[in-house]
Design goal:
heterodimer, A: alpha+beta, Alpha-Beta Plaits, 13% helix, globular, B: 614 residues, alpha+beta, Aldehyde Ferredoxin Oxidoreductase Protein, subunit A, domain 2, Aldehyde Ferredoxin Oxidoreductase Protein, subunit A, domain 3, 3 domains, six-stranded mixed beta sheet
Chain lengths: 117, 614
Amino acid sequence: MDLIKGYNPRRSRLLIQLKNENLYHLPVVCNQCENAYCMNACPVKAIQRNDDGIVCIDPDECIGCGLCVQYCPIGMAALDPDTQKAVKCELCQGNPLCVEACPAGALELIYKGEINA
Amino acid sequence: MPDTYTNKLLVIDLSRKSFETIPVSDLFKTDFIGGKGFGAKLLSDMVPPGTDPLGKDNPLMFMTGPLTGTMAPAMRGCVVTKSPLTGIFLDSYFGGSFSPEIKYAGFDGIIIKGQAKNPVYIWINDDHVEIRDARHLWGTDILESNRLIKNELRDETIKIAGIGQAGENQVLFALIGCEYNRQAGRGGAGAVMGSKNLKAIAIKGSKPVAVHDPKRFQAACAKAFKELEESPDVEAFRVAGTAASVDYANETGLLPHKNYQSGTFSKASQLSDIGQSRHIWLGSSACMGCPIRCSKIGAVRTGKYKGIVTDIVEYESAALMGANLDISDIRAVAHLVKLCDLYGMDSMSTGNLIGFAMEACEKGLIKAPKGIELTFGNVIAAEHMIHAIAGQKGKLGKLLSKGVKQAARKIGGTAVKLAVHTKGLESPAWGPRGVSGMGLAYMTTDRGGCHQRGFPVSYELAGEWEGKPLDPLSSEGKAQMVIALQNYSAGRDTLVNCDFGSYGISAETYAELLSAATGKKADPDLIIKTGERIWNLVRCFNLAQGLDAKKDILPHRFVKECLPDGPSKGHRISEKDMDYMRQEYYQSRGWDKNGVPLDTTLNRLGIGYAGPHQ
């Protein structure tokens, strides 16, 4: 909302995949992959993993070539139509808005090693 | 400052193969807000008396509201056109994800004029508008054409509204399927689309819908979400959609059984959430941005019809395709309703019509198709009739495809007494004989016999309206309640909201959402007064199209035949009851004895130009 000054789910950093007449609707979120293809594919090293393990894009370094978009296996990188730079889920600095917005409690932010159950 | 309007309407002329955008003026927004209001005003301006609903001059309009496509919960879109089934105003609402996409592409609404020579579909990708050949799609059902278009355009995320074979064949109660499992269902908008040779509209929009005051809007949304969360009615929708209403209607004697001959069905619970949760449901699904998730999606897993994916069989379909036909196997009912969805025809009207045909056949008024036993309880006969109606096959299929009013007139004689409709729109699944206010709502609803422009049943059975006791069987004091509900409903339909949302979200919160979204002052009174303005404008439109007070009536069955069972056994809504309620209604509305709005009323509402003297 704040970033694009409005609403459009196509601009969100996650997607809901609909299958079989909507019998299945699966949320797809960025895995922050250990072997991140987006990071591997970036020709200018604009994509780096930060100290929390989150794969982040530096907009100043990004040249908007779209290779990360092409090689992410689950469609989680996109080119921002306004800036023409690559964007992906960076977990909103630790406070994901999607988690806050979900009325069904289907989304939760859990760090690696936190699942003890 | 931005607001949630895109301030543009897309006008596509299929005859000329051209399109243009027209601006949305401030005055238009102030007077009519959006959705139903926009549609009603445009239809009044564009459709003179005598316009053929299935001709090139009848526009087909897809309208959004100022809250469509935002984070405001439980919002929808609407289709507005002149109905081929009733010959009067038609607005039909749909959830899902198609209407937000209209806004994301940059439009407050789409107006389709003219007629294509050959089958076409429309592809809108933001500012790119293209009329594409659809000859290869003609003859496919709604889901198949949806798949084919997505393959053709190589994009799974496109949102599509389209017609099936029933719309192509101009079955007068054909619908428009809006993915997934959502329909602009009533009144034959699908036939209008078919008459234009328009198979589908596919949209993809990348533009954000901006709000005027983001902080205030987010706070209003949070309030709306909280109100939904705290409402027991919404909780009931969340758990079981409208399926639980089957048992409720049965206990209160309002459930149509055997073409509304009686009001109870001993096997009701097999059709309700009790039967559906056992045999069909697997999970919940929601329209875009809605926390209610009233849809219970699932599949028929066992028995003769196993393998079909089906959404919840919502109350109206369960009652009219189930109880009304004396069919209690919910898996069979799901199958019949799914067939209607695929062909693209209103399962309410279809259930009503098959019930009519079964009764007419049992009474010897019509002949069953060869080899078919057209009797109550026969699933095979019901299925046969659905195929026949959608494909306009055989004498009876052709006859029924014109709707129950025309079919009964053609058959003639006592058949007219078995036709359950008001103004040609087949009655919904709430027999009104035990709730006279619902009867008055059917008599006066702008699009014909409809339960969705005010639903007095809940107040009548609770026995209270605005703190005063209310007798469900009495004719007195119903008019004010029905008018208040209709005005508020028409006001909310400008936003465009979902009726279920209004069970939780308060009028104050709707007004606050509207105000924060648009930057204009709004309060509940504004929504109600706008609703009243629209209601009167539509009344003038309908009168000009040939409606008169003699058509503000209930069907023979509810007037002449006493309810044989249930708590309101022995009751009917007599001619005298109807006269009383109608006059009380006209008077309270500021209409004359013939149901014509008075000049003073129209002037008070700022639509003096709409009067019949013009």
